[in-house]
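Hello,

Our lab assistant flagged a job as stuck in the queue for most of the afternoon. It eventually completed. Since we weren't sure the result was trustworthy after the delay, we are filing this so someone can double-check. Below is the sequence as submitted and the structure that was eventually returned. Let us know if re-running is recommended.
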Amino acid sequence: MSKFKGTGVAIVTPFNDDRSVDYIGLERLIEHLIKGGVDYLVVNGTTGESVTLSRQEKLDVLAFAIKVNKGRLPIVFGIGGNNTQDILDCFHTYDFTGVDAILSVSPFYNKPSQEGIYQHYKAIATICPLPLILYNVPARTGSHMEAETVLRLAKDCKNVIGVKEASGVIFNSMKIIKNKPEGFLVISGDDILNLPIIASGGDGIISVIANAFPADYSNMVKAALTGDFKKAQQLHYKYFDMVHYMFVDGNPPGIKATLKILGICGDTLRLPLVKVTTTTYTALENLIKKIV
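-- returned structure --
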């Protein structure tokens, strides 16, 4: 699964002022990412505000991304939730032509046990027609997928090819890396922890900040994966303060504000998310002036 090593980008879903999908902005963003040298695109992830998109909007955004991409990069599509049967129904009805893998978040709100998380993913893996990437993000889901559960799924389900690890606990990533089957991918879900996870044996990132700065960020990841940590560290610390301010008012408000400042797309969000504060916006503007 080498196509998913390196820099994936959890792309935002741009909205017009009336909160309809801004397809002009989305096309501009996709071209920006491809030109910036990223390795693959993730559509309908957390950063894409997937929980506020209707089922038809999700399919429309995916179809548009596939059309614009024209096969230039692999595409990962997010399908997850806390209703296992509803996810299974999606696999029976969706057309996955042009999709290379599925990213599926661990069930949220229900707070299942580790056995429940395992059975949830096993049911999905059984019918999923594509490689499946697990997604552990307890700050959003309210439950932590333990390393042992990830490893159990990696060993029991042949099409479970990796995990997006966004627990913020690097020990969890290291435990998976140490004990994983050969070829199983450990992908950082935290921009700030990307470099240490790669240094520990990880395979790259599904990034938020790379929406705005794809060239530098993908170069940082490539440098780290090839052992050039001096270059990787320079690029990592170049964006260190930017990452902080990009998340201080939540994600994706911070990255959307950044994309607006750069002139790529607007910063409109769907409720209950709102725009960053004036203080954060000014801080982002000042940091961008130093970077670009």
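-- support follow-up --
The delay was a queue issue, not a problem with the job. The result is valid. The chain has 13 helices and eight strands. The chain has one domain: 2-228.
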